[in-house]
Amino acid sequence: MKLNHFSLLLIGGLTLLSSLTAFVLFGVFLRPELVKEIRDQQQMEVRALTAGLDFYKRPLKTFAFDYAVWDEMVDFIRRPSDTFIESNLYPAAFSVADIDAAMLFDPRGKVIWQYQGIPAPLPKDIETHPQWLGGLLPSAEEVASARPSTRTGLLRSGNKVVLFSNAAVLPSNGDGPVVGSFMVIRAIKPSLTDELQRLTLVDFSLDLAQPRLHKHLPLLTEDSRINEIRASHTWLLNDVLGQPAMVLTLRHKKSEEPAFFSKEASLIFFTFISVFLCGLLPITLVILNPLRAINRVLVKMTSRGRLIKMKPQFFIEEISRVAQSFNQLADMLERHQNYLESLSLQDPLTGIANRRGLEAFASRAHEEWLAGKGTIGFLMLDLDEFKSYNDSLGHTEGDKALLTIAQALLIECRRRGELVTRFGGEEFCVVIHGDNLQQMERLANRMLERVRELQIVHPKGQYGLMTVSIGGIFYEHFHPQFVGVSWHDMLAMADKQLYIAKSEGRNRLSLRYMQAAKLVKSVS
Question: What is the DSSP letter of 349?
């Protein structure tokens, strides 16, 4: 045998052996992994979609809960008034939050008040549908528990499907008798599909369910599994009454199983000896690891029930763009949720923070003070002889005066770490987390002068003008001597100083400085 023939035979034999080896390895090991990857990706799309649907419900649930767990709402159900409706239940408050309808029920399911946009998502005579009310309103056990409760889900009415959230109405502290329930409704619109597609980055469609045609479809749940690779999967969404509501069709990005004699397989066959082991490493680093990272984020997001940002930079540009787009959508939805939450922290008359806002800011400032960051102080401001002002000029003028003074105080509190809040009635509270005690004292004096400069005439006032009395407590940088002093204690001490300012003739300051190992009191 000639050397050339032997070489050709040897090369051919090695090539054939390598090809057979690669063929077996591809069929036994690599191809099942590729199929599993496609199935996992389809499963990840299902998880992303269910997480997106759950996240879409949360702002609605938050909105209903904030309105329901509220002392003033409890009073309104017991004593309905047009003034409360005009101040708190006006249409713009719902339309800006993309709420299509809202309803308030008493404990017997009777509608006390309702708002419906155009077109109305539900019949206005909802009381004539007792089968609806039984699934939407608090049960007897929930009412008897006297604790907060919510019900959220889909509801079908003819050819319309809406998303609703109903919360039990009870006092703001979350403990007390359930006096009714508050329900908000959002119609399922084509824009819902577009928003969820941008959020989840999966392609799907929502259609109205036909009971006879679609009753055999499986229900979509958090545990729905992909057992077979297909171009699309379809599930049924029932409403809270168990009636077929929507049909969801998910179209997968990858749906074809790798062919046994594909181009990829042929490439592996011819390059198996030289690049097979090395080739797996970059594939794992630049494709599989990012997909696993994205999958971990989605799984964590589903388990925690909130959006979690993912690493924005990957080696593959398309994967980086997917991560960046997801983070941008997460920021947008977080801002939207923060806006809804901010509505519950704002005083409706003056537009400044209310007591809920005070508690959140004061708690955070107190924690930073305990950590040795800066000084802390509280000012309590009370409008002098405000009752006689109201009695002589009327409550409308009193509200105007409150608004004017609140905005003036807000202008003074423009530094970082300063917050003015309406404490209640004609009282305001200022939280100051600053650098030094002199800064706090200057702010207190500016506020006293600012109210005087407003020149609000007080016909029966001691000084002929609207004035304020201010009591304050200021703590220097944290010292172990101050252990055990809460921000509530500080607020109580500021209130005592306010009493001193009142008793000494009003229209003045009474400030107290707390320093380690000594106490200095200054009244001006």
Answer: T
DSSP code per residue over 221-268: -TT----S--SEEEEEEE-TTS-EEEEEEEEPS--PPPPTT-HHHHHH
Q: Can you read off the two tokens belonging to residue 289? A: 């690891």
Give whole-number Cα distances, 413 to 161, 410, 440, 468, in Å: 47, 5, 11, 16
Which residue from 495, 491, 489 is spatially nearest to 510, judged by alpha carbons?
495
pLDDT, average across residues 476-502: 93
Residue 121 half-sphere exposure toward CB, CA atoms < 13 A: 23
Distance CA 240, CA 131 (A): 11
Whole-number Å distance between alpha carbons of 343 and 353? 10
Kindly give, in sequence order, each residue whose CB lies less than 8 Å from that of residue 390, ignoring residues fewer than 6 positions away. 397, 398
Torsion of CA 83, 97, 242, 134, to 10 degrees: -10
The whole-angstrom distance between residue 316's C-alpha and the CA centroid of its chain comes to: 32
Phi, psi angles (nearest 5°) of residue 170: -160, 175
Q: What is the pLDDT of residues 149-170, one digit of tens each?
A: 999 999 988 888 999 999 999 9
- Which token pair is 166? 């109903």
Residue 4 has pLDDT above 90, yes or no: no
- Residues 481, 515: contact at Cβ < 8 Å? no
Structure tokens at 450: 């600012």
- Sorted by sequence, the CB contacts under 8 Å of residue 410 that are 6+ apart come out as 352, 420
